[in-house]
Write a structure and sequence with these properties.
Blueprint (H helix, E strand, L loop, with lengths): L17 H20 L6 H8 L3 H29 L1 H18 L6 H11 L5 H10 L7 H31 L5 H8 L1 H17 L8 H6 L9 H12 L2 H11 L2 H18 L4 H13 L4 H40 L4 H22 L11 H22 L7 H15 L10 H30 L1
Helix pairs in contact: 1-4, 1-6, 1-7, 1-9, 3-4, 3-5, 3-6, 3-17, 4-5, 4-6, 4-9, 6-7, 6-17, 7-8, 7-14, 7-15, 7-16, 11-17, 12-17, 13-14, 13-17, 14-16, 15-16, 15-18
Amino acid sequence: MDIANKATRIRLFDFKSIQMRAFHMSWFAFHLCFFGWFGIAPLMAVVREDLDLSKAQIGNTIIASVAITILVRLIIGPLCDRFGPRRTYSWLLVLGSIPVMGIGLANSYESFLLARLAIGAIGASFVITQYHTSVMFAPNVVGTANATTAGWGNLGGGTTQIVMPLIFAAVLTLGVSEAVGWRLAMIVPGIVLLVTGVGYYLLTRDTPDGDYRELRERGELPANRNFMESLRAFIEAARDYRVWALFVVYAACFGIELTINNIAAIYFFDRFELDLKTAGLIAGMFGLMNLFARTLGGVGSDYCARRSGLRGRVNFLFVILLLEGLALVLFSQMAVLGLAIMTMVIFSLFVQMAEGATYGVVPFMNRKALGAVAGIVGAGGNAGAVLAGFLFRSEEMSYEQGLFYLGIAVLVCSLFALAVRFSPEVIAEEDQALNDALAERELESANAKPALQS
């Protein structure tokens, strides 16, 4: 779809313009979704003892936490096309807060498994985040905007690893047992999600010129698709082999990040015999790289686009994914704590840059089915996490072996990036759109100079 008045700059300290309000609210909401989605992960050592979970059962809960997101991400993209990102995000946050708070009621493996399955639905928030920034920002900065909002959202994975053990410790000072403490601690992210859902509805709009509903009433957007039209748009996206190539690519980066978010704390807790707080702090460093690493991927993608067009975006993605695989193989071999931390940080850098580079390509795949494309590719991340989860539920395979095999898989998946091609017509169209956006940005700068001088 063609949206007017997209921003050609990212002004981080602008909280008034519609574009930048959507930018800040989308990354903040996604950040808090991670807080709820993986809030239980750093407390798993306590939950394991309380519910007497085996390694295989823990592995099953890890798989459950990301499996349902595959389905919800496939659905959420078309919902954004139909109802707009504002309403879709608000409802997801409000409804998602319920199982986050409800997980404390689990008293068996089966009920805990079902709770983690339900919580996984809020992982679809990523698709809405990418969708919202894609319709708010012009081609010259859309890669950076998408990467930054997603990266600062993913930062919630690191925040969670650090903050949840502290919340847990604070709850214990009330005199409750550990078995009660982890349950009460999970109420905190649930309440935060609920409040954010209301805030998202009040503070954002679907596009720079208003909500989809308003634009359709004014005739500035095509009439809302019926079910069959939405289905045809989804099928059109699903028939494109390039979309599935990016599905695999995203499985090899975001899928890996989700897996590490789930196992990092318990991995360092068991392998290096650390206490819960220290293990959580180290695990949090992996997610904290999102503060800038995913943005670097988007910036790199936009830079390569200015130099080499869409092909430059694709080549950049391939190189970063290849480096990610090599770094993961190296991390899996580290037996000294200091070296393990150092290689994990390097590996984290490339993982998150690859994610940013992937969604530097997504907005250009099919503008008429942006939601469907974003949803399918986003689902790839969770599909990768599900497959990786099976490696870590096996009693025979160690975490180190599982990480090594994942590194090899990433190296193979990097080749799929090279399968993404664009027709000469699309290349010419996007080159023109990029040049128009750069010209508009130059015009804004030229107009701003006299105003400053006066």
